């Protein structure tokens, strides 16, 4: 049986390889107070991001599963990429002219950390490998 890569496993792999290994074997632990706070702050930051989309970055109304036929410029929120190997969810994707695609990570903190950069890079590399999407670069939105 092949392990399916998901956001939790990637996040845990950055911080603790053993925890990622346990999750890959479907063993779950207890969510810490820090994880609860992180999740709450992340949701608040996603809400702020949606409210601050400028007029040239309009919100694309679409289902949350990625569709390669999107041709309009704008931002698609909470985009899921699923197949037999991965189950990843990007906070947003920006579609710009000339078929440029930019995955967006929304961090709940004021400063962008190395782990934020590593997490979005890992997500983008798995999505590139599985869906052959030509990402120009990744963007990180912070407060």
Give the helices and strands, then pairings.
Layout: E1 5-6, H1 7-15, H2 17-24, H3 33-51, E2 74-82, E3 86-96, E4 100-106, H4 114-131, E5 139-141
Parallel strand pairs: 1-3, 4-5
Antiparallel strand pairs: 2-3, 3-4
Helix pairs in contact: 1-2, 1-4
Describe the structure in your own words.
It is a single chain. This protein has four helices and five strands, in the order βαααβββαβ. It has helices spanning 7-15, 17-24, 33-51, 114-131; strands spanning 5-6, 74-82, 86-96, 100-106, 139-141. It has one domain (5-141). The chain is α/β, with parallel strands linked by helices.
In short:
The protein has helices spanning 7-15, 17-24, 33-51, 114-131, and strands at 5-6, 74-82, 86-96, 100-106, 139-141. The protein is α/β, with parallel strands linked by helices and 143 residues long.
The run of helices and strands is EHHHEEEHE
- Low-pLDDT segments, ≥5 res: none
Spatial gap, N to C terminus: 41 Å
Calculate the mean pLDDT score and round it. 83
Describe the sheet with the most strands. Answer: 5 strands, mixed
Structural class, by secondary structure, is alpha/beta
Q: How many individual domains?
A: 1
Q: How large is the count of helical segments?
A: 4
Which outline best applies? globular
